[in-house]
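Archive maintenance. Older records in this collection stored only the sequence; we are now back-filling the structure field for every entry so that each record is complete. The fields below show one back-filled record exactly as it appears after the update. Entries are processed alphabetically, and Hsp70 family chaperone is next in the queue.

ARCHIVE ENTRY
Title: Hsp70 family chaperone
Organism field: Gibberella subglutinans
Length field: 203
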Amino acid sequence: MFSNKPKQRFDDTTKEPFIKRGKIHFKEADIKETFTMVFDDIVALINSQIEKAEDHHLQVTGIILVGGLGGSPYLYSHLQEIFSDDGIDVLQPNGMKPRTAICQGAVCKAFMDGGDENGQNLAHKPITVTSTISRAHYGVMYHTPFEEGKHLKKDRFWDEDQGEYRADNQMEWYLKKGDCISKSEKLSHPFTAFTIRTGMDDS
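Back-filled structure field:
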């Protein structure tokens, strides 16, 4: 049974951790000691990724912190102190999206996998990638009859075969950066081959 009498042998003289208004306050040294081993593992992982990038002749110029721990000011300053001398910027985006990036990735991965290993017992069809976004412009250069006011004068040249001024260095874009490309359709463009005769046939 519970006794309402004060416990004479109960000794609560310790001052740590400090509790105020229902919150526990830890010293900076305690927190630092807790995360030191974790931060060492993070630095080791980053160094290994930098080495892999260098093996492929790629230069790492920035580190983006995402996830719950990625929002830690201490982690941010810790990585800055280590990698700033190597010319690597440490970026710490604000808002909830960077903090929940790991969760969002896990959810997307689950949807794309579509359930169990055999793809059975699905409540919905697995999500598949049906289109991509072009990361660059694709096209060919050509020349066309020169039009005053439309083409640059520096691109104008005299075409002896056509007997007219033409504009060089023109571009025909078949795909522009940011265009949506369907996975089910092929992007193609017809070309015509022709031969320019440079001399007369003697026969």
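Update note: Residues 28-55 form the longest helix (28 residues). The beta strands are 18-20, 23-25, 62-64, 89-91, 131-133, 138-145, 156-159, 164-175, 180-182.
Entry marked complete.
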